Amino acid sequence: MSDSLILRVVTKWLVPVILLFALYVQFHGDYSPGGGFQAGVIFSSAFLLYALVYGVDATTRVLPEAILRIGASLGVLLFAGVGVVSLFKGGAFLNYSVLAGTPVAGQHLGIILIELGVGITVACVMLLLFYTFARTIPPQ
Amino acid sequence: MEMLTVLLVVIPLISAPITAIIANRYVAWLITLVTCLALAGLSGVVLHHVISGEVIHYELGGWKPPWGIEYVIDSLNALVAVIVAFIALITVIYGSKSAEKEIHDSQIHLFYAAFQLVILGLLGMALTGDIFNLFVFLEISSLSSYALIAMGQKRQALVASFNYLMAGTLGATFFLLGIGFLYAASGTLNMADIALRFDQFSSMTLVITALLFILIGLALKAAVFPLHSWLPEAYTQAPTMVTVFLASTSTKVAIYVLIRTLYQVFPNTYWEEMLLPGFLLLSGCLGMLYGSYKAIRQVSIKRLLAYSSVAQLGYMVVGVGLNNEAGLIAAIVHMFNHAITKAALFMAAGLVLMRLHTTNLEKLRGAGKTMPWTTGAFALAGLSLIGVPGTAGFISKWYLVQAALEKGNYVVAGTILIASIMAIMYVWKIIETLYFEGPDKLTVHKVGSGKEIVPDLPVATFCCYVMVATCFYFGLYTDIPLEAANTAVEVLFSTGGGQ
Amino acid sequence: MRNVAAVLHFCTDNPPTMMAYLLGHINYWLIIAVMMVGMFTMMSSPNLMKKLAGLSMFQTAVILFYVSVGKVDGGTAPIVTEAATRYANPLPQVLMLTAIVVGVATMALGFALIIRIRRAYNSMEEDNIHQQMEAEELD
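ok -> structure tokens follow
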């Protein structure tokens, strides 16, 4: 935890910007470089910065570990779920072409959904890892 | 039909996160049980469908191979899937009590989730026809098994798991490097496609490098002698349920991948002129002798059985290295038989551990009198491990000796016989200690002190006997594994790879 | 041995070509160096943390190898733009995305194990831990 006023103020300004950038990387990932992995890591880095400046306890109040665990699992479920939906719609597992009216729209929808699942899981797992290791350091 | 094959991977992929979300230990067990039931049923149906030689192709995501990932299921994959799914099912039924006892309440749902991920990884390795996809599944199963082994009760489990992690990751990375060389040479990752175009690039030196890296990586994962050092500690320290499952499936799946690589991806005509077959035979024979020798010297039942696994893997490697049809059939059938035999033995060892809190033979003198059923299971499953006629173990050893004689390789045949005699010695060591030695003072204290003995574990004992019965069933009725192995080997040898 | 002799022969006969060969494959030499440093650390260091660091270096070298393989002469990053016609092969890069994730998971699990080992044995040195393990009763 830091007492520096500059760090505290700058962090408060930076966190929303980082989150916004993560969402941009996430949802623009099908047109430009980016996607779930990158977005997830950027998203979690915002909370990491917050934890470094304001302490892990303050961060766990915002995002408790229990929620992260559920989030990590839900991301995987979303990924698998999209595949199963395409399975039920008569396509192969993870064949998004059948998800919407036209194959292109289907692929578009499918890739956005599974990247969202990947993003959620990566963000949650990165933060969980950080919490787990940070808790082993005794507070000063 | 095609849809069923992908369900084998999709079901655990969905059930594992659900188990992790619903943090309740009973529900977790129930979900795992239902998952395993479904997987066992599905794999049985798939095997029934492909055993006569049909091949199922499933294009993941609807992309045509070789660009997309496809699952290719012939009788060999299906047999491996059946081994994994059925052993998983029986382990889950067997393990409910032992997991409750050994794993902390707050972790038990995560334990079951990781268990399902191991199943997912092993099934995926068995089914996929894409070599990079195989690496990913290999890592899924490995990472979950490191975590499971670390959940062992003693602190040695942590070190065992760490050493396994180092060895396993090194092996997987070698495998990855080999895939990279192969991709650089062939430009494709689809195993059938590599095999199909093998002649176009087989003259490149790169291909030999690829073969060696892949081989060493797989040998590390399969604990082939002399790369076995992680195995005994990992199996000894892991929780009972994990030991039963991993000992009977994970190395077998690695051996399966070895067979698939050596006979399909790289046609056997490519490597039979090299030193490789001789090296495989040497490693297999030394492994048999070394594993049996170490097993005889162990005082812990679990560690004894683990070293015996090293020896039994030697038989499979010899079968692969003989490079004839009979040898490969023997290797595949032994893979199947050893899985059920080792499952039965580790289940019996787990029963001893749960009741008497130790598997140290020096403390178990005369324990057979207090628990005749468990000791009986040791004796019966031990017969199969030795290879007594009428048991499953006999069939595969018989084929293996025949295959060695067919090649005129009397040294190998002799080594197999010597290793079998050594197997009698280490199995007898367990039986003798449990049945015929009188309890000494220390043991009286340990065994006799009332609360040490848990009430009978009827379900677990029943599961153990189911496995023992299976050993005898497949010793008398060998149709299923033999037919599957025959079909698979015919395909592997007739086409020299490719479809 | 024959290969080594051939390379040496080649080396003495054609010094400029040899130089070009060495420089032309500079990425591979560097990758091999990183790989060997990683593997050596992994095997020789008694400290568990350093072992894990060595393993990580080894994995990273393989990732670099794949990316090198995917390089196409004069190709840009595999992002479709009007300015470029030649692209690097995107497949190895995609594969390595997976390998990196696997590597991260391995590292995280390895660190977690080391932390628990350190708590259980109060040491991260392999020799020390082995001494303690030998003193313990075998089960």
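DSSP finds five helices and no strands in chain A.
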